[in-house]
Design a protein that fits this description.
Blueprint lengths: L5 E5 L4 E3 L16 E7 L5 E5 L3 E10 L6 E12 L2 E8 L13 E7 L14 E2 L4
């Protein structure tokens, strides 16, 4: 797909370059205050999340029950302020008849703890800076 899916910028002016969809490296991102999270879109544009208290990132994939193959469907970038999570879902693959196409972005808000797929909580939150 593409080699780098995100860049994290920290308050100390350093950066962390994320991996690809098969190994995004979010768990290896240093535990420092994040000033912004830049997501590279399939069309090579980017979205920038900033001024959040917390950040999270994960990949949404499905496994075919017949052949066991895993297919990456979405990137999720999340920002949280005042216990409200803003979820940015970017579609990476789309099957015929699906209303979302590759590159489509859906932005939704959830209460903190109900942001995950199936409306459960997610782990992997990292500290940000709310201005």
């Amino acid at each position: 797909m593409y080699d780098q899916i995100y860049t994290v910028k920290f308050s100390d002016k350093t950066e962390f370059i994320g991996g690809d969809v098969s190994a995004p490296k979010w768990g290896k991102c240093p535990e420092k205050e994040i000033s912004s999270l830049e997501i590279l879109l399939p069309c090579k544009d980017k979205i920038i999340l900033s001024e959040y208290e917390k950040y999270n990132f994960f990949i949404g994939a499905i496994r075919n029950l017949k052949d066991g193959k895993v297919s990456v469907q979405h990137l999720f970038a999340l920002g949280c302020n005042d216990n409200t999570v803003t979820s940015y879902r970017i579609t990476l693959s789309s099957e015929s008849g699906n209303k979302y196409r590759v590159g489509d972005m859906t932005v939704r808000n959830f209460p903190f703890g109900k942001e995950g797929i199936g409306r459960s909580s997610t782990n992997g939150w990292k500290k940000g800076i709310k201005k």
